[in-house]
Specification:
The complex is a heterotrimer of chains A (about 725), B (about 210) and C (about 425). Chain A is an alpha/beta fold and about 725 residues long. Chain A is about 30% helix and about 20% strand. In chain A, strand 8 and strand 9 form a beta hairpin. The longest helix of chain A has 23 residues. Chain A is elongated, with a radius of gyration of 31 Å. With about 210 residues, chain B is mainly alpha-helical. Chain B folds into two domains: about 90 residues, Alpha-helical ferredoxin (Fumarate Reductase Iron-sulfur Protein, Chain B, domain 2, Orthogonal Bundle); about 90 residues, no CATH class. Helix content of chain B is about 55%, strand content about 0%. Chain B is built from eleven helices and no strands. Chain B is globular and about 60 Å long. The relative contact order of chain B is 0.11. Chain C has about 425 residues and is an alpha/beta fold. Chain C folds into three domains: about 180 residues, FAD/NAD(P)-binding domain (3-Layer(bba) Sandwich); about 55 residues, no CATH class; about 160 residues, FAD/NAD(P)-binding domain (3-Layer(bba) Sandwich). Helix content of chain C is about 25%, strand content about 25%. In chain C, helix 1 packs parallel to helix 2 and helix 1 packs parallel to helix 8. The longest helix of chain C has 29 residues. Classes of the chains: A alpha/beta (about 725), B mainly alpha (about 210), C alpha/beta (about 425). The interface between A and C is large, with 91 and 87 residues.
Chain lengths: ~725, ~210, ~425
């Protein structure tokens, strides 16, 4: 290990110099912190000071720098020292602006600042400069699963950016559903009439593109590896097998229409004249612009479209969701009839017509062309003579009514072709695995985790592409129900994410949300007990197991949350700049008052994205909280190793507060399961507390949002008050 | 139309007829059933079917129910609905158009006050080119028969007395009455207008 | 300044969620990006949203993640208080004039807040839609980036400006700052200029601007937010009493040829979400009624709609409200209209009315480059030369999730242009 050369700048700006005894603090940094180079600065963030610092780093060959001053979230542009291990000690927001005013404020501030300085020094010495993933692999090729409109768009987008692209399509030809359509819904002004699908052009471009290859009639046999180095075994149409080496994968496997046979009450499967929207596209293509005829050659004089067929269903028998596109699709299809023969009766039965945005113009256009819209609830479709009778409730006229028709089109929904639901119970999963699409050779299952209703959507409103399998993105109707225009837009975005994934993987950097992070998980396998907790708990499926059941880290699948580090009972997993030691040494570094001082110490482990900014904000707004807490930001509550808690309690800390994000169905943890895992682990800590003879209240977890600026100081004060109530920890003085 | 026979329900026959025959009829299909016309109408509480509901009934093919309805006769042309309609339907014109078409077909409800007033007013003023108020008033009072007429005239006696004293009502009008200088000219104008209307209808539907 | 931008640089106009996303996604692919924001800080309208549907999570959480990404990425150059005034040139080689308004606070600022302590003058608080006031020396909001104070121009020339200057311990206040204009060379442009709420005053029968208790959905968002003017209590503006019977009127401006001809897509979900704010803000049991034409809870949001439907405190009436009248005696607002499902006339009293106002492009009414292609409502489709792109709310009325998706797609298209420019350059070289 190379030599460490540490320095610290103690900033005295923003009132720090007046409020704190800097001399004493400097002595602590030198004596206890063993900091090599130490100086005070009246405004460390000023251009002059920063320039001086850069010079000093050069001249003295500094490797580690501690800046004691403001929060790590402030002045980041100024304190930007690439190539240097940097720690920040939060005196301004964490002490000056948060310690309640009062007689003993100067004393409490000084103690708090001193502890934070000790913690900063302790952390600094444990930091290593991240060197990026050494196993970084730079395959820049992109594999697209699915050759429909979404897949073609994604592959072409990547190829146009100079990346090789490979399409794997299960059908013998490209084009997907859209290739079987007569026309598409207009997607730009004027939103008046159905438009050519443009699929032929996409297929032709794909065939001609020098960077694009296709495997038709092909399926995936197995997908191994990680971003930058995926190996995908493919079964080809000629019974052969080949392996594609790629850097990232886009899953654009589309949808299947909900089967109308499940809707016998609406005539599905009961009459050949009850068809779905795909069926109507076939009829329209067959008639090629002439008046549309049924399969028996009978011209259609009256057609009824039944919206939400088998969708928005509250009974649990059909699809619970709305597929979004079907209103516009029925409007489009009604226009097919009108375009060929204006006196055909076209009736659209709907409960809520859903044509958002400029779809309103399309709706108007259909009305202009004489399409009849009826707000009504379909009850039954039964044969009548040569045709059908649609019984429904007219919701406007508030009567039971009926209409006779030659043809009924059921607007059924999109069922995603997302493969296996890996969250199924183990025994069901084995059966479902046969349907797997990606066939991932991952410890946590063969397909992308699903969000809801089988769609592989992201859980995050701000980050629609973030799946839980790094470097594998999903696009089009498999991600979320959508129409052609949306699918193509979606595929374009997914192509960007795939390109980003291969670029980042090549440089050994993390992807969202710790984008650019060069640290990566390191494991000391010689200490590993093969307990498998890390492989099971990783929210991103980054860790596999080898034949001896040792964990195999796939660093470029890792999102650097540290959940594995929190899970590991023998503490063999760490990051260069975030480890059991970097935090543990801070916990051990403080000056612990004795039992009789009536100065409790409460350790606060706070999610760095939500709880920690909430504390900063509270301080900025002058909201004060107890000076008996010491706050350490953590990457995620999932990264909290219980050793930190037991060490703290053994060391005489009176209580430990863990501040994480909301868990449960609407979880807000951006590492998916971090706060859930923390809660689970802590539910087991009660026994340990008992053994130590400590009250269960000494460890508490809270769900805190970034907006809890008023609530959080209150929570802290209440918790500290509780510590006074139950008394100081009996463990003090034994450490 | 009986419940069992739906062969013409929700078909375009009646809508097409309305589009062909009724002023503003081509707009009926553009309604999106928001109901703002119904909520905006000052006569709302008094009629059976709101405009938006009439538009739906037209789509449903309820020809008799629409044309025999009294509702559109109640329109006072306040235009609240027209200015608020998000689809800019000329609701007022459509109401008058429907009323006029129902009248033409002889389906308009008998003894409907607006209808009777309109008919009498038209007949009254096109004959001489001027409104004979005496005859118009009495014509309306006695439209439901002798007894009802006397009752209503009696009820209005103080108003009549006031008008008489102010010189606003001339009993002599009952027998003769004044006319405009060129009553034949008025008739010629009306004949020309009908001719133009018929020509336009032949060309464009309405 | 020219040095930071070349024809391989991508310009993103607008620093809201769409602009930030487009800039970050492109930069994380290795592109150089200039991000231009008209306001003093990034975040746009999403920073003013209390919670997102359907998770009811907090927009600031995602904003913090994006700010982290931004701070960690030297490839994005952020210009705030900056407005694009002119675009010339063409695809692969644009010249853009950017006007920088003075902040009167330079980069020495540490956000310590000493200046605000000596300033007493207040201005309407833009963060809270002007529903309350802030000091004229202010930090735009809790997560403002850059984390620097702003001195409002109204202070200039007053003794308070001088006092603020004197109070700053680091000499960050510069009262001599003036308007600056810079020129950038860029290869492609993303218009992420966002949306604005339709001017509700124009919807005359609803009385916005005449009746204090008629507010817009954008204002209601601030009322429900603990950071808002009422600290999260939903109070009637007329008398400060808690609102207990709230009406939500859908399509206020949208789907209306007299106003906005398009459907604004998000308003149904916004109102559904806002009915749920009552659970937190008025636990004693406020009622809500949603007046709608069609509920557009598209795709899996249907689930959220069904949840709200099941909430006994929320009623749904299929009706476009005809007009609102103030009952002077009760102080209530009377909504007149017709429940079109079966034709039931109503005159229902409410103590607060929220207009779910439509979205129109923020750029409507502004001078834009002639070759931008816009639809009938002014949303930006692209440019005739294929080098400029619309993203997010500037391109269509979209919710945040779809806006980010749109911005990501726009980033790729813009990258294709700058990469092509780079390849052309290589060939020349």
């Amino acid at each position: 290990m190379s030599e460490i050369k540490t320095a610290a700048v103690l900033c005295t700006g923003c009132g720090i110099g007046e409020a704190l005894d800097l001399k004493e603090l400097a002595r602590i940094a030198q004596k206890e912190g063993k900091i090599g180079v130490l100086r005070e600065d009246p405004q460390a963030c000023s251009a002059a000071s920063v320039a001086a610092l850069h010079a000093e780093i050069q001249e003295q060959g500094l490797t580690h720098l501690l800046i004691a001053g403001c929060s790590r979230r402030a002045k980041t542009e100024a304190f930007n020292f690439p190539g240097l291990a940097l720690a920040r000690c939060n005196w301004r927001e964490g002490v000056l602006w948060s310690v309640p005013e009062g007689e003993n404020a100067p004393e409490l501030r000084q103690e708090m600042a001193a502890d934070y300085l000790r913690m900063g020094c302790a952390e600094l010495k444990k930091l290593k400069l991240p060197q990026a993933n050494p196993k970084a692999a730079g395959n820049r090729r992109i594999l697209v699963l699915g050759g429909g409109a979404s897949g073609l768009t994604a592959a072409l987008a990547a190829a146009d950016m100079g990346h090789e692209a490979v399409i794997v399509e299960i059908a013998p030809q490209l084009g997907g559903w859209a290739a079987q359509w007569w026309r598409r819904t207009p997607w730009r002004a004027p939103y008046a009439v159905p438009q050519p699908t443009g699929i032929d052009e996409l297929v032709r471009r794909a065939a001609d593109h020098p960077l694009l290859r296709c495997h038709l009639g092909a399926t995936v046999l197995e997908t191994r590896g990680a971003p930058g180095r995926f190996s995908v075994d493919i079964a080809t149409a000629d019974q052969g097998q080949i392996t594609e080496e790629v850097g990232a994968i886009i899953q654009a496997t589309g949808f299947t229409p909900y089967p109308i046979e499940r809707l016998p009450e609406l005539g599905g499967g009961m009459s050949p004249w009850v068809i779905d929207q795909a069926g109507l596209e076939s009829l329209a293509r067959a008639s090629d612009g002439a008046p549309i005829r049924r399969g028996d050659g009978r011209p259609v004089r009256t057609v009824v479209f039944i919206q939400c067929a088998g969708q928005r269903d509250a009974t649990g028998r059909h699809l619970a969701y709305c597929s979004g596109h079907c209103c516009a699709t029925s409007v489009k299809q009604a226009m097919y009839f009108k375009a060929a023969q204006s006196d055909v009766d076209t009736v659209v039965l709907y409960t809520d017509l859903r044509l958002p945005g400029m779809g309103e113009d399309f709706y108007r256009s259909a009305q202009t062309q004489g399409v009849t819209f009826v707000k009504g609830e379909a009850k039954a479709v039964t044969p009548q003579g040569e045709g059908l009778r649609v019984a429904f409730r007219d919701l406007i006229l508030d009567t039971d009514s009926a209409v006779e028709a030659d043809l009924v089109v059921l607007a059924t929904g999109q069922v995603p072709r997302s493969g296996t639901d890996i969250d199924l119970p183990e025994e069901e999963r084995a059966v479902a695995a046969a349907n797997s699409v990606l066939k991932l050779a991952y410890r946590q299952g063969p397909d992308l985790p699903q969000l809801k209703y089988g769609f592989t959507d992201s859980h995050f409103i701000c980050f629609p592409y973030e799946t839980r399998r790094t470097g594998i993105y999903s696009a089009g109707p498999v991600r979320r129900p959508m129409d052609l225009a949306q699918a193509m837009e979606d595929a374009t975005g997914a192509a960007l994410k795939a390109i980003q994934a291969v670029e980042s993987a090549a440089q050994g950097r993390a992807l969202h949300p710790r984008s650019g992070d060069l640290s990566y998980p390191m494991v000391r396998l010689e200490g590993c007990t093969q307990c498998k907790r890390c492989t099971v708990e990783c929210p991103f499926g980054a860790i596999d197991e080898d034949e001896n059941r040792y964990p195999v880290f796939n660093e470029s699948r890792c999102r650097r949350c540290g959940t594995c580090m929190g899970a590991c009972p023998v503490r063999v997993i760490s990051f260069e700049n975030y480890s059991v030691d970097t935090v543990g040494s801070q916990i051990k570094s403080i000056d612990m008052p004795d039992e009789f001082s009536e100065k409790p110490r409460v350790l606060v482990l706070a999610c760095e994205n939500d709880a920690y900014p909430a504390l900063d904000t509270a301080a900025m707004q002058g909201r004060r909280y107890s000076a008996f807490v010491r706050v350490i930001p953590v990457r995620c509550l999932g990264s909290v190793n219980t050793i930190w808690i037991t060490d703290a309690l053994n060391g005489g800390w009176d209580g430990v507060m863990l501040l994480g994000c909301k868990k449960g169905e609407d979880y807000q943890c951006h590492f998916v399961r971090g706060s859930e895992m923390a809660a689970y682990r802590l539910s087991k800590i009660e026994d340990t507390l008992k053994q130590m003879g400590l009250e269960p209240e000494r460890v508490a977890t809270y769900e805190v949002a970034i907006t809890d600026v008023e609530r959080l100081p209150r929570l802290i004060d209440e918790y500290v008050a509780k510590m006074f109530e139950i008394g100081m920890s009996p463990m003090k003085g034994f450490a | 139309m009986s419940e069992a026979d739906h062969s013409s329900a929700y078909r375009r026959e009646f809508l097409a007829e309305v589009e062909r025959e009724v002023e503003g009829g081509t707009w009926v299909k553009m309604c999106m059933q928001c109901g703002v016309c119904a909520g905006s109408c000052p006569f709302g509480p008094h009629w059976e079917h709101s405009p938006q509901k009439i538009f739906m009934m037209i789509r449903a093919g309820q020809r008799e129910a629409v044309l025999r309805s009294e509702s559109m006769w109640l329109c006072t042309s306040c235009y609240n609905c027209v200015v608020r309609c998000p689809r800019q339907l000329p609701v007022t014109h459509i109401m008058h158009g429907l009323a006029s078409y129902a009248q033409k077909l002889g389906l308009a409800p008998k003894l409907q006050a607006t209808r009777d007033f309109s008919l009498q007013f038209w007949e009254n003023c096109t004959r001489t080119g001027r409104v004979n108020e005496m005859r118009l008033t009495l014509g309306l009072y006695f439209r439901e028969g002798l007894v009802a007429g006397f009752k209503q005239a009696w009820a209005m006696r103080t108003v009549a007395w006031g008008l008489l004293r102010a010189g606003r009502l001339n009993p002599a009008e009952l027998v003769g009455g004044h006319r405009c200088a060129d009553a034949n000219g008025i008739k010629a104008m009306l004949a020309k207008a009908r001719e133009i209307e018929a020509r336009r209808k032949a060309q464009h539907g309405h | 300044m020219n040095a930071i931008a070349t024809n391989q640089t991508l310009l993103v106009i607008g620093g809201g969620i769409s602009g930030m996303s487009a800039a970050l996604e492109a930069a994380e692919c290795g592109a150089e990006v200039v991000l231009v924001e008209r306001n003093a800080s990034l975040g746009g309208r999403t920073a003013q949203i209390y919670r997102y549907f359907p998770k009811l999570c907090h927009p600031l959480c995602g904003l913090e993640i994006n700010l982290r990404r931004l701070r960690a990425n030297p490839r994005v150059r952020v210009l705030t208080l900056a407005e694009v005034t002119e675009v010339s040139g063409r695809r692969g080689n644009y010249r853009v004039q950017v006007k920088l308004a003075p902040r009167y606070v330079n980069e020495r600022c540490t956000a310590c807040g000493e200046c605000a302590k000596v300033v007493t003058r207040t201005i309407p608080n833009p963060y809270n839609q002007g529903l309350d006031t802030i000091k004229a020396a202010y930090l735009p909001h809790a997560l403002a980036h850059p984390q620097r104070y702003v001195l409002d121009a109204s202070l200039l020339g007053s003794p308070e400006a001088e006092a603020a200057r004197a109070a700053c311990p680091v000499g960050a206040i510069d009262l001599q700052m003036g308007v600056e204009t810079i020129e950038l060379s860029v290869g492609s442009i993303i218009w992420a200029t966002g949306w604005k709420p339709y001017d509700a005053v124009k919807i005359q029968p609803y009385g916005y601007g005449r009746y204090l208790d008629v507010v817009t959905s954008v204002e209601f968002e601030r009322l429900a937010d603990p950071r808002g003017p009422t600290r999260g209590r939903i109070l009637r503006p007329s008398n400060g009493e808690p609102a207990t019977n709230i009406a939500f009127i859908q399509c206020a401006g949208s789907r209306d040829e007299n106003h906005l001809r398009h459907c604004s897509r998000v308003c149904c979900m916004v109102s559904l979400k806002q009915t749920q704010y009552l659970r937190e803000a008025a636990p004693e049991g406020a009622q809500a009624t949603v007046y709608y034409i069609d509920i557009r809870a598209i795709d899996r949001f249907e689930n959220f709609y069904q949840q709200v439907r099941a909430d006994a405190r929320v009623k749904f009436l299929k009706s476009k409200v005809a007009r609102i009248v103030h009952n002077a005696q009760s102080g209530q607002l009377v909504l007149h209209g017709v429940d079109t499902e079966g034709y039931h006339r109503y005159a229902r009293e409410h103590d607060l009315v929220v207009l779910a106002v439509g979205m129109e492009p923020e750029t409507n009414g502004l001078d834009l480059p002639e070759d931008l292609i816009r639809d009938a409502s002014g949303f930006i489709e692209g440019s005739s030369d294929g080098g400029q792109f619309g993203a997010g709310g500037a391109a269509a009325p979209l919710d945040v999730n779809r806006a980010v998706q749109s911005a990501t797609a726009a980033a790729l298209r813009a990258l294709q242009v700058t990469r092509a420019a780079a390849r052309a350059e290589e060939l020349k070289g």
